[in-house]
Amino acid sequence: MQGAPAMQRYSIFSLLRNALSHHERWQAAWRSPEPRPAYDVVIVGGGGHGLATAYYLAREHGITNVAVLEQGWLGGGNTGRNTTIVRSNYLWDEAAHLYELSLKLWEGLSQDINYNVMFSQRGVLNLGHSLQDMRDIHRRVNANRLQGIDAEVLNAAQVKAMVPILNTSPGARYPVLGASLQRRGGVARHDAVAWGFARAADARGVDIIQNCAVTGIRRENGRVVGVETSRGYIGAGKVGVVAAGNSSVLAAMAGLRLPLESHPLQALVSEPMKPVIHTVIMSNAVHGYISQSDKGDLVIGAGIDQYAGYGQRGSFHVIEGTLAAIVELFPSLSRVRMNRQWGGIVDICPDACPILGKTPVRGLYFNCGWGTGGFKATPGSGFVFAHTIARDEPHPQNAAFSLERFTSGYLIDEHGAAGVAH
What we know:
alpha/beta, 2 domains, eight-stranded mixed β-sheet, 18 strands
């Protein structure tokens, strides 16, 4: 210690001081204020989308008299219950451009909010198991290239070279004929996204209020004037609802009925192991997808449960079917133990695209219906929703996702590109 350089001695003593302090001297990541009587904007939902909306309201539009109300803890809903995949290779222009905006924001997000969200552009593979799968892959890749989005088609040998443990035998029940690849896609750390946006929004004056459930939406003369909560009434000039699987419940409080169904969506993780998978592999045919986290566990996702419900838990038959599919694709993983599984709640529109815009109640805005594609859209969703709330008109990237499309018939059918739940 005596011969150690001064900087090294400082680092050692600093580490010891903080270790013994039990974090008492650490600065809080964000404040925990009491709710004010009223705000210019109230955001209902403290997940990634809601926190991103509050951040961009403050940063892009100078609106800082904002409260984010979360019924539990930040990131305790779908933000912390997904498999963290990020990509933008959707089929139709409207969806592809919205997800591409989000992907571009992901690429600079850690620097923008000064928080490491652990965004890893390791690539996303969508496997093709039949000639029809491959025709669909070629169609989507060509559409993406026309949209200015990176995409390419791989044959079975190229897929095998990227993922050596994948079973590409012609005798497999679902033989791998090829895949699409988006190299800019990847994964991020879901908790870090919520924490990073929360800290950045708080630094700009946004109040983040946890354990504050919204129990009613108050209207007067066709306009929203505030929200009833478990911590009292809070007035608001505008209210943005970003409540994921509970969106239809919140809409009913305002007298609205949205074209949504809520379903449990399951995922699970394995015990940690040495790196064996270096990209994200998805398969619509077997309804399974897999990646490996930085700490070594395999992150596995399933399709949605077919029944509607609000349970954040799993169904054994879905878990068994998903693991059987994963073992077919990766026989060498058959003896890997699963550590835990969970369920999230996804709200799904008839065309597998979100509702993102104004409602018939003046001053009330909804951001919902992302289905299985919500996490990847987090920064882009917040960016355009903040624009919509601040200016009372949609951003060009979310204009097509209004409620009116369900009466005009101008739907954006992304069931194929949304594919397996993710």
